[in-house]
Amino acid sequence: MAWRRSGALVSALLTAALLLTANSALRPAAGGDRDNAARNLGRVDYGVCRGTDPACYHDWGNFDPAVDGYRILVYSRTAGPRHAHLGPALPTGLNPPLTPAHAAQSALVRLGAEHGFAVDWTEDVTQLNSPGRLFRYNAVVFMSTTRDTLDDPAQTALRQYIRGGGGFVGIHNAFGTEYNWEWYEGLLGGANYYDHGRNQAGTVVTASRRDVSTAGLPARWDFTDEWYNLVPFPSEVRILARVDEATLPDGATGGSGHPGHGRNHPVSWCQYYDGGRSWVTTLGHAVEAWTDAPTTGDQYFLQHVLGGIESAMGREPFCR
């Protein structure tokens, strides 16, 4: 019995140590410097070629824009909470009717019409269940999807599509999706949603203007969002934009107690991943960001998203 008690004690001590490590990573560091507070918590080796080196991209000749033009698929299926900017759930099939309530989908359709690329949209998982379907698209956009939004065939197809040189764009609650699929977390930049505070005004800092998604943006621009906190913290990516936490009236602390990321709180980044391209942003919560209703910074936000889509498609240089 003594060895059993000893084993139980060791197990309890290990559990306590792990909890202490996690809690320490989420607490502000001494002196208020939280830049490295949560970066390494839960970091995973995803076992794929990933990062900012174009050598990680695989061009298998699956796309011929000279013949087929450029086309994206917007996928907005929710298997959990649904953001207001998506409107009511859409019926099955491809390109079901949109109403004014479908603000985000409609905005992406408008961007395509204005900038010369075709847009299909769906919330029908069967439209994603084969690589052949997906290879019709230069990029697939996950628009505020939630929870387990893909079945097994769709997961397999998405992975084969990315490995075949496909483009991925994840917007806002794409970070609240497929929590238990490690490969998808890697597609998001080795990052995942942890929590957020209230929807509040803040200032976005443009990290670099070399990338097409940041070219032409001001060095600083005001916007209103939920400012996601992340665990794990993105790794092996190029940070494109950050939020200045000092400009948040309520601070960056989230509902589950995450203190924020200090001076390096990313909101958008890009990477090559497992043969494909991935551009993601945590921004896009407010309905007004997707409509003609005037709201501060919405023109910069949509310009940012447009550049992300065009680069993930391969129409513009990617992740510069």
Automatic annotation (TrEMBL):
First and last residue of the signal peptide: 1-29
Top-level taxon: Bacteria
Keywords: Signal
A Pfam match: ThuA
Transmembrane segments: none
Record-annotated ThuA-like domain positions: 100-310
Annotated SUPFAM superfamilies: Class I glutamine amidotransferase-like
Name recorded for this polypeptide: ThuA-like domain-containing protein
Species annotation: Actinoplanes italicus
Species lineage: Bacteria, Bacillati, Actinomycetota, Actinomycetes, Micromonosporales
